[in-house]
Hints:
Layout: H1 13-44, E1 68-76, E2 82-86, E3 90-93, E4 99-107, E5 113-122, E6 130-135, E7 141-143, E8 148-157, E9 167-176, H2 178-183
Amino acid sequence: MQHTSPMSQTNNTPLVLKMVLLTVAMFGFGFALVPLYDVFCDLTGLNGKVDLVSQEEQVYTIDENRQVGLELITSLNEDMPIIFRAEQSRLKVVPGKFYTVNFVATNRTDREMIGQAIPSVTPGLASAYVKKTECFCFEQQHFNPGERKVMPVRLTIDPALQEETKTVTLAYTFFDITHSADRQ
């Protein structure tokens, strides 16, 4: 005759149901993260969620009576061994007029590497008014050992930007994705 302890006779059905519900909830949350992230980026301007203009530049009414300060900031992920800067850190732009600004990056290593720049716009609400037709952030950047690259960004600020916004900051952070790109 086999002896069973009182613990082994416990009904596990409620626990199993809770675990299944938790698993379904976790899957649902993971599935919802992409649209939530897009909404977050639209509101804050993080991750460069700016409107892209087709290669043929859209025509805007140029507001010659107004200037907006454009600050260009660069930073590196701690693992990115390059020198990275904007040729100009500040400029005054006329809304509706297109500008080309250059960024310069130099690979300080003796190895090939691949980088990806992630943009962000401050204030976040201004991100909807920054229109880019060309940007090095659209694609991964391949660097040969010691290579120096000049990387242009072609953009305008939509004249519909609120009058109260006097300065827009466009920031880029460069990440080393060499090993990530190798796996693709």
